Amino acid sequence: MMEPNLIPTLDPNPLPAPYWVFKLLLVVTFFLHIVAMNLLLGGAALALAAKWRSKNRVFVDVAKKLPVLLPATITLGVAPLLFVQVLYGQFFYASSIIVAWPWFLVLVALTVAYYGFYYVSFQNGQNSGKSGSVMLFSVVLIFLIGFVYSNNFTLSQTPARWGAKYFAHPAGWNLNLSEPTLVPRFLHFFTAAVAVGGLLLVLIAFARWKREPDYARQIFHFGGKAFMYATMAQFLLGIWFLAALPRDLRILFLGDSALATSLLVLGVGVAIAAILLMSEAIRRENVRLAAYYVSGIVGVVILTMSVMRDILRDAYLKPYFRPDQFVVKTQWSVFPLFLVLFVGGAILWLVMLKRYGLFAGKKAEQEAPVETPELTGAAR
Ligand code: HEM
Predict the structure, then answer these.
(1) Rounded to whole angstroms, how far apart are CA atoms 47 and 110?
(2) Closest Cα to residue 312, out of 152, 146, 181?
(3) In whole angstroms, what is the distance from residue 276 CA to residue 281 CA?
(4) Structural domain for 151, as ranges
(5) Which of 96, 182, 195, 284 has its CA 20 to 30 A from that of 122?
(6) Whose CA is nearest to atom 7 of ligand 1?
(7) Are 234 and 304 in contact (CB under 8 A)?
(8) How much helix, strand and coil, in percent to the nearest 5, is found in the chain?
(9) Sign of CA dihedral 247, 249, 253, 258
(10) Does residue 41's CB lie within 6 angstroms of at least one atom of ligand 1?
(11) Does ligand 1 lie within 6 Å of residue 16's CB atom?
């Protein structure tokens, strides 16, 4: 049953820039957030897998990146959070109140996970057993944070569910577990993270290729294969996700909407190309092919999926969300300044990434002794 009366009224404040500007910024910044999140969660999950397979040095190397990737994920999450509030505040605030406690606990989990990542990175491979357990704990927390996000965002687009949920537990101890798309949707995100984590390892291998060929080859094979297997699994998860959607939304991607269908075909086609290219790169031991081309192609896939996710949200909210009701009063005095700062901020990010050598550039190479991979962590 529809309960539109539970939806708060539209904020009467006019939008300070045209609707499409916010929409574009929302999708672009969400894309950046999700890339950072993927590197963090996927990188950390693969670091654990590496440890489990006694590749201790891979664990130590990736662990060193995580205290940087976590704040990157957070700061790149603030931007879409602002744009979501501007455009979908009526839905997002209401659902956040319904899942208030899990939503609030995200902050606690983030803080604890952050400490955990710092602890592991400072250990430099010492206290191996304890480092592994702390890392596992932090990864579980980050995994749960993502799960809470999926709960909140799926709930925000199904207002018909709000009443029953809120009145069942008005104190805010709710999730959205009865949502049929929740599990496939979240697993789709998590598996994408593992694939992109694989690319992080490929990029680390690329940066080390000349100086430490044996180690670089090892990490390249490990990361490249993780990327391929995770991306293959996405085909099953994607089908599950699509099948779980309500029929009228599913058919949007199956011919009903030219844009949604083309994006799905593009996304799937490009993902297949990425798998084939990675397999070729591994076979030929061509790390450059993987680092440049597969990463670039995967960027296209994530962007495509981000736009599809937005189309899906608007389709869910169609009965309630009327963008034409926004009053727009562009603040021309600050809007150009905002754009300049936005572009400047993006450039600053790139400079920081280069300087820091996120993918094990100069700084990390200086830190990493070349011999005996297993001992390296302890030696530092
Ligand atoms: C580090 C832990 C985090 C993880 C693992 C994570 C993961 C995710 C995932 C999986 C989604 C997609 C949910 C869905 O659509 O089903 C998402 C969306 C989002 N995240 Fe994060 N997130 C994290 C931290 C943050 C933080 C700290 C912020 C804000 C400060 C943030 C802001 C957002 C926003 C605004 C969206 C939705 C954007 C939109 O609807 O277009 N995230 N996140």
Answers:
(1) 19
(2) 181
(3) 9
(4) 18-375
(5) 195
(6) 146
(7) no
(8) 80, 0, 20
(9) positive
(10) yes
(11) no
Residue nearest atom 33 of ligand 1, based on CA coordinates: 77
Question: How confident is the model over 328-338, as pLDDT tens digits?
Answer: 999 999 988 99
Q: How many domains does the chain have?
A: 1
71 assigned to some structural domain: yes
Q: Which atom of ligand 1 is nearest to the CA of 75?
A: 30
Which residues lie across from 328 on neighbouring strands? 15
Report the residue among 22, 34, 37, 194 best suited for mutation to probe ligand 1: largest number of ligand atoms under 8 A from its CB.
37
Convert the pLDDT of each residue in 280-296 to its tens digit: 999 999 999 999 999 99
State what percent of residues in the chain have pLDDT above 90.
85
Query: For residue 15, what are the β-bridge partners?
Result: 328
The predicted-structure confidence for 291-328, as pLDDT tens digits, reads as follows 999 999 999 999 999 999 999 999 999 999 999 999 99
Alpha-carbon distance of 41 to 47, in angstroms, equals: 10
Residue with CA nearest ligand 1 atom 23: 146
Is the per-residue pLDDT at 373 higher than 80? no
Domain for residue 10, yes or no?
Answer: no
Query: Does 355 map to a domain?
Result: yes
